[in-house]
User: Fold this.
Amino acid sequence: MTTNEEMPMVSIKDVHKSFGDLEVLKGVSMDINRGEVICIIGPSGSGKSTLIRCINALNDIQQGSILVEGQEVNDPNLDKLELRKKVGMVFQQYNLFPHKTALENIMMAPIRVLKQDKKEVEETARALIKKVRLEGKEDNYPGELSGGQQQRVAIARSLAMKPDVILFDEVTAALDPETVNEVLLTIKELAEEGMTCILVTHEMAFAREVADHIYFTDRGVIVEHGPPTTFFDEAKDPRTKEFLSQIL
Amino acid sequence: MKRSDYQTEYKTDLPVMVTPLPKTGGSFRFTLKPWHGFVILMACLVSSGIAYAVTDKENASIFEVLVRWMPLLLKGFIFNLVISTCAMAIGTAVGAALGLGQISLHGWVRKASWLITQFFRNSPWLVLLFFAMFLLPFEITIGGLTIPLPDWVKAIIGLSLPVMANVSEIVRGAVLSLPSGQWEAAESLAYTRRQTLWLVILPQCVKRMLPPWMNLYAILTMATVLASIVGVSEVMTLTGQALSAEGGQTYWHRFTPLFYYCFSFTATRFHGGRYIWKRNILLSTKHCLRGP
Assistant:
C-alpha cells in the first residue's frame, strides 16, 4: 500500500447507494487531501450522513469506488478493522459507552483493539481529556456529563485511536446553542493542528470559518462545491441559492 | 410546590419532561414490607388453629405437630432450593449461549437456536419434567465411568429446560433493546464483533436482564413442587407424608407455602443488584426510583 503524499487521503468516485428501492446516493465524487477540512451541507435526507458512513464501511455501497489512503472500501475482502483504525468517527448522539467512565471510554479501544500498553494509553487519554478541556471529569460516567461534555469525550475517544481522518456526523445537532460552541472550538483546534476532517454540519458560520472546501448535496448528488468564500458569496446553482437564503 | 415551579426548575414545558407532582396526603401507596410476611404467617396459623378447633379429634396441639415435623420439612425445602438453584445455574449458562446463538451471524446457528428456544419455551413445565424423567436413563456410562442419574438430578435437568429457553429470550431481548448507536460506535473504533458483544453490549445488558431473570428465578422456585409429582422427596412430598401420618389436617397446606414466601421475598427484595451496581450500572434505575 502506498502512502503517496500527492494522492488524496480519501477519494470518492461515482458512489451509488440504495436502501431497498430508495436510491440515496446517485453518483457522488469528491477528493479529500491530507490535512483538509471538508464540510458537507444540504437538506435532511440528501444523503450526507449516508455518504460519510460509507467511508468507514458502516454502510456498504452498490457501485463506485471509495479509496482511503489507496485502500478500496468497496471490496468484499476489505479488512474493515484495518480501515476503521485509520478512520475515526464521531456521532450525533455521542454513543459513549454508558457503563464506562469518561477515561475508560477513551482508553478501551487503544488497549483492546490496538493492544497498546495500559500505562501509556492512560497517559495519552489524560492528555486528550485535557485537550478537550474536561479535566476533573475523568471518572464521571457519561450519564453524569452534559451533552457537550459527552461529545467532547467522544471526540477524545476517537482521537485516542490516532486516526488519519475523522468523520463528524452532525455532531452538534443534538446540542443547545451554548454547548455547540465548546464542541466546535474543539473541532476547530483539531483542524488547525492539521487533522483531516470530514464534517456533515448545519453550522454555516462554522463551515465558513474552518472548511477548506464545501460540498452542497441535494437528493443524492453534489449540486455545487467550492471554497467557502466562493461558495457562500457567489453560489451559482439556483438550488444552492435557495438553500442558503433560507439558512443564512 | 406548584407544577409551574417544577417547570421553571427544569426549564421546559414539554409534557413528557414535566416532573410529576409528589403524592400528597390521602393517596395510598402499597409497598411490601417484611412485617407483611408475619401477617401472612399469623393468618395461616390462626386459620390452621380454627381448622384444628372444629375437628374433634384427640390430637396433639397443632404447634407441637408442626414443630415435630419442622426439621424434616425444612430439609425437604432445602432440597427444593438446591433443585431451583442448580436448574437456574444450568438454565442460565445454556440459555445465555442459546440467546447469543439467536443473534449469531451464521444463519443455521441462529435458526437452530431459535427452534430450540421456541420448543422449550412453549411447552408446559410439567411436560418437560416428565420428558426428562422418562426419557433420561437412570445412569449413563461414558467410557468406563458410570454416572448415576437419580430422580432429583433428572428433575434439575427437566426444570432447567424451560429456564434455558426463557433466559435465551431474555438475553436476545436485552441485546436487541440496546440502541444501534452502541454497535456503530464500537464498530467505528475497530472492535471485532466478539469484542463489541463482550465489552460493550453484554455489560449493559446485565442491568436490563436482572429484573426478568429474578422473576424467572422466583417462578422456578415455586415450580420445584412439580418435582413431587414425579416422585422426588421434596417439601411437597414430605408435606403429603406428614399429612397422612397426622391424620388429614388441612393446615399443612397452609404452612408449607410460608417457606416459599420467606425465601422468594428475601431473594427478590435483597438481591445483590440493588446494592452492588448502584453507582455504575444501575445508576439510571436509582434515578427512576427517586421522587422529585
Summary: The domain at 39-268 of chain B is CATH 1.10.3720.10 (MetI-like fold). Confidence is low (pLDDT under 50) at residues 1-10, 272-292 of chain B. The radius of gyration of chain B is 25 Å.
